[in-house]
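SEQUENCE-TO-STRUCTURE ENTRY
===========================
What this section holds: a protein sequence and its matching fold, both as plain text.
Question of interest: how does this chain fold, as expressed in backbone structure tokens?
***
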Amino acid sequence: MTESLLTIWAADREVLPDKIRELLAQGCDINEVAIDGQTPLIKASYYSNSIEVLQIMLDAGANISARDDMGRTVLFGAVLANKINNVRFFIQNRASVNARLLENGLTPLLVACEAASLEIVKALIDAGAGINTKDSHGYSPIMVAIQANREDVVQELLNHGARVDRELVSFVESFADFSKTEVGQKIKDSCYN
């Protein structure tokens, strides 16, 4: 099997900059598309710990806006892998913070609110991610964070203007454990006072 910018990620999760340069010099396609629609840069967004690798790929013409068959972009990969440096890099290079998955309308912020670090959530918010954007099931980032019992994320979203209304209070009350937290109580009090 001939080595390509797609196959190297399967063989070695941490590909070094020199390997990328070598494959590019051999004429490998920087925007080759795998059977699942992923490109080398999308794969790198999940697996690379090297900003230098990402920069080399962008400099070689990698499409930062490419999407796989599910609609995932490089920013989804970096968020799912919980790689704050990759998230910041892609934001600085104008990756869309409000891209949506095709099947369910999730955005990088909606995904981050469930499992990524608070630092990633903050970076996405600071970059203009839709703080009240809902997925195709009607869940907003704050609802996702409540479901995941992420008090720190809920507080961050509230600090940045997440919408608090009767629907949210009812949602909080449906999660008994979260409803008893300081943040849960604050949400309920803000709507009833």
The two ends are 66 Å apart (CA to CA). The CA atoms of residues 116 and 183 lie 19 Å apart. The mean pLDDT is 92. The chain has 13 helices and no strands.
